[in-house]
Amino acid sequence: QRRKDHPRNRLRVPKKHIMASGKTTLQRRSGEILKMAWEAVIGLEVHVQLATNSKIFSGASNEYGAPANENTCEIDLGLPGALPVLNEKAVEMAVRFGCAISAEINEISIFDRKNYFYPDLPKGYQISQFENPIVGRGSIAIEDEAGARKIIGITRAHLEEDAGKSVHDLVEGRTAVDLNRTGTPLLEIVSEPDIRSAQEASEYFRQIHALATFIGICDGNLAEGSMRCDANVSVRQRGETSLGERTEIKNINSFKFVERAIELEIERQIDVLEDGGKIVRETRLFDPDKDETRSMRSKELSDDYRYFPDPDLLPLILSQEEIEKIRSELPELPQQRERKYQSKFGLSSYDSKQLSVDRNKSDFFEELTEASRLPKLSANWVNSNLSSLLNDKGLGFDRSPISPSLLAEVLIRIDNGTISSTSGKTLFRAFCETPPKISEIDDRIDEMGLRQIGGTDGLKDIVLEILKEHPNQLAELIDGKQKVLGFLVGQVMKKTNGAANPKEVNEIIQGEIKKG
């Protein structure tokens, strides 16, 4: 029986508010108040495919997109007598991530066999790490829903091999199996249950994605499954300290889907509990087409997997010297760069974050700023004009058709008034097609007629001509209608093909008005 003080019992909906659809005008407000009585407790398990050339325990190619079952060998197929050999590069990448989140790096870690039977798992077990992972406790900072800094604890990050892929719609009535992915090195990053909303979960996933790609351990291609996550979700009434029963939503591969799947699951669990039901521990699937989570199977516990140390693999032993060498080779990390751009260059939080997400973008910006000495203008161009061009061409910042030094010369000429911002964009596009030598830039500006026309170059005569052509607009401006000024300046810019200096045009027009 529901308690009398339940939020839902306090919300009495008059009949006049009930519509033919069955929904009420108070429905949204009711849901919001109901949610306020509950608190979500969320933890994410993020699976990062490591960007090694070969697999974690074999020499087979780790390349994505090969024909089915081509990138396999006797080790991946689990053939009798085939023994695994650990990929040193995968170990280095795991340690690199651990150092980046200031985590404990365990000098001794052990590989275990996780036993379960599924068609895409040839050996009947997965090699993973259980009680002794390579990376221990660490943390990462996110922004919560109020924009405040929040620390999310990371319990562990362990190495394991990926399973294959079952394809259910290729052969009618049968399941096909592609083992190309079998043995792909994974780093599974397990968070503490510190996340309290779907938005925070999405932000945490973004931060892990940004960090993993920034330090070069993953290509970050969500569409190809290079990174995906499982979300563990439970709810409890606010003020309670014990955890509610949780469900796990499997294999979510986009920031948007993580947020939506968790939102739906929180709402579903609240509804179940409010109606007097119980949450069943289970694994669920998010269906974006139907906008729902639905049950897949009951949730296995660690005992079900019968973990035991893999007898074919010796314990992994790392020295402090090896760990410190990897730590010393880390680049300046995204959040460090973000803070630096705000304090050193005075950039906004938004611009700083946009510049810090992609390492190649961040490096390009720093080179551009070093060459131009114009950090704010450089940030604007990198985040807008250059990003847009590269996006249209499907290129990354490491393949930009214009170099930082050449773009710096364009920005310097915009800043000193040699060319206008509009002409700068024209010059930028031209230089992306056929980059000139630095010594040829001014000749190209003159050839293209982009050099800005100043007052000493007949600009005043052009302005007077425009004012004469538009007497009605001039009269409105004299009467105080300042909006007309933009129109008149625009006409001058059009007349000069964007070569006029807008500031000088503005000053000339204002001077003529004062003369009467």
Describe this entry's structure for a reader.
The chain is of the alpha+beta class. The chain contains 17 helices and 15 strands. The strands form 4 sheets. It has an 8-stranded mixed sheet with strand order 5-6-9-1-10-11-12-13. Helix 4 runs antiparallel to helix 5, helix 11 packs antiparallel against helix 12 and helix 14 crosses helix 17. The longest helix has 20 residues. The radius of gyration is 30 Å and the shape is elongated. The termini are far apart.
Summary, kept brief:
By secondary structure, the chain is an alpha+beta fold. 40% of the residues lie in helices and 17% in strands. The N and C termini lie far apart (83 Å).
Low-confidence stretches: 7-29
> Structural class of the helices, strands and pairings?
alpha+beta
Let me know the average pLDDT: 89
Backbone shape: elongated
Specify Rg, calculated over alpha carbons: 30 Å
Strand order of the largest sheet: 5-6-9-1-10-11-12-13
The share of residues in extended strands comes to: 15-25%
Major pleated sheet: 8 strands, mixed
Distance between the termini: 83 Å
Helix content range = 25-40%
Secondary structure tally, helices: 17
**How many E strands?**
15
